[in-house]
Amino acid sequence: MQVANDIPSAVKYPNATGDPPAPPLNMEAACEKVSVLVRQNAVVIFTVSGCCMCHVVKQLLFGLGVGPTVVELDRDTSGGDIHSLLLHLSGGGKRQQVVPAVFVGGKYLGGIETVMACHINGTLVPLLKNAGALWL
To answer: Fewer CB within a 10 Å sphere, N or C end of the chain?
Structure first.
């Protein structure tokens, strides 16, 4: 996964304790953290706590029997930098919805629209099986 060096910084989220966020990591560190997570886990969802669309995606996957790794960006010390990286991966843009961001089998699948479309057209379960997230 490559990231351009000129990615604009995103809004920094406070950590779970309510303290100010830690100084931002650089994009390379955020990219490495995301890369490690998606390589080591069949399904990873980047979310923000309280986001209804994130809740829907998590419930869909849990309902299918998948145990995704969930990273809540507003509770992660590097959440702002990961948010910037996800904005870049999703195509950028001010109106672009960044979360939920779903990775399956080490690859970026997309957000809620893509996940729901895959579920409706019957391609989500095969993707999850191929990634080793389902043993049906």
So the answer is: C
